[in-house]
Amino acid sequence: MKEFEREIRDKIHSKEEIEWKERMLTKPKLRTYRTLKHTLEFEQEYLSYHDRQAREVMTRIRGGTHELRIETGRYPNTNKDTRLELHERRCLLCMSGEIEDEHHFLLECIVYDDLRRKMFDVVKTDLLKKEEKIEGLLSHADGRQRILEGLLGEAKVEGEAALNLRYAALRFCKRAMSRRNGVVLRYLDQRT
Known about the structure:
mainly alpha
């Protein structure tokens, strides 16, 4: 009987996972989430992290409900504003001309280099192979995606290494988003 129950549960879960993936494809805000999450299961590593604010920031970054201009540029702030086109949603902090999206925020924006250095120390020890250099991975799209998956998604590592990566990402996200929002609100006098 237990075998039958487990088989039924597995079939139901499999069907729910297929429907979940299909629904994700219809939602453009989940473009990053689709690249990070491939299985429908509870993610113990970060959902049980002790810092609630850090969990919230990471969840918002993964789910496309954050304050970065890639999302906030979709909506006008006032009646006089218009929606920003994708290429107009540039980072207001580093002025590099790059679109302020999750990749830029986590891996590129120079405003967070000091915070990112601490996170990348963990990436070097817990994600990279001995012969790999982080600069090499950051220089191509596949490498950047691998780092993002290691930090925010379903990393190809397990155990303590996976926890270290996730906790480093949680700390970075909280501190960097706090810095970002402080600068944008206080010094740039912007809502987004």
